[in-house]
Amino acid sequence: MLKRLFKKEKIKTIHAPLSGKIIPLEDVPDPVFSQKMMGEGVAIQPHEGKVLSPVDGEVIQVIKTKHAIGLQTTDGVEVLIHIGLETVDLKGEGFNVHVATGDKVKVGQSLMEFDLEFIRQHAKSIITPVVITNSNEINQSFTVTNNQEVKAIESILITLSNQ
């Protein structure tokens, strides 16, 4: 009991996995993301086709069509990076994934590269949601950056703290 009273609040951060313009999740033109069915988060309109690990943890899922990667931090926060909207229809074309399910990753490690222009031409949007898929299950509060632009790894995208 006393340990909990004097325990310091642990603050965790999720770095920006790509550089680009911040889009509030509510403004993403896809109800699955905008209505937060997948969880809390934010989206980025990327300036380049490089995705870096925003956290230390493990790759828990690489979607077969290569358009999304799921990570789990060392303390159990699940982060989904979903490149573009309706990119599942591209069937993996335009994506080059550098990791596999089960791989351990560190902040800044390359996860994938994608052809930004190809996706811009062949998908609904290049907007890339970054979502905490277990946000309803963890006892954390979320603060999204108030910056309008982020730089991969240099910018903090989401800060989590104990409630």
TrEMBL record:
Record's keyword annotation contains S-adenosyl-L-methionine = no
Question: GO biological process annotations for this chain's record?
Answer: phosphoenolpyruvate-dependent sugar phosphotransferase system
Quote the subcellular location field of this record. Answer: Cytoplasm
Q: Which Gene3D superfamilies match?
A: Glucose Permease (Domain IIA) (2.70.70.10)
Task: Say yes or no: keyword Ribonucleoprotein present.
Answer: no
Single GO MF annotation:
kinase activity
Q: What is its main location?
A: cytoplasm
Q: Which SUPFAM superfamilies match?
A: Duplicated hybrid motif
Task: Give any Gene Ontology cellular component.
Answer: cytoplasm
The PTS EIIA type-1 domain, residue ranges: 30-134
Q: What keyword terms does UniProt attach to this protein? A: Kinase, Phosphotransferase system, Sugar transport, Transferase, Transport
Q: What top-level branch of life does the organism fall under?
A: Bacteria
Any matching Pfam family: PTS_EIIA_1
Q: Which PANTHER family match?
A: PTS SYSTEM GLUCOSE-SPECIFIC EIIA COMPONENT
- Give the protein's recorded name: PTS glucose transporter subunit IIA
Its taxonomic placement starts with: Bacteria, Bacillati, Bacillota, Bacilli, Bacillales
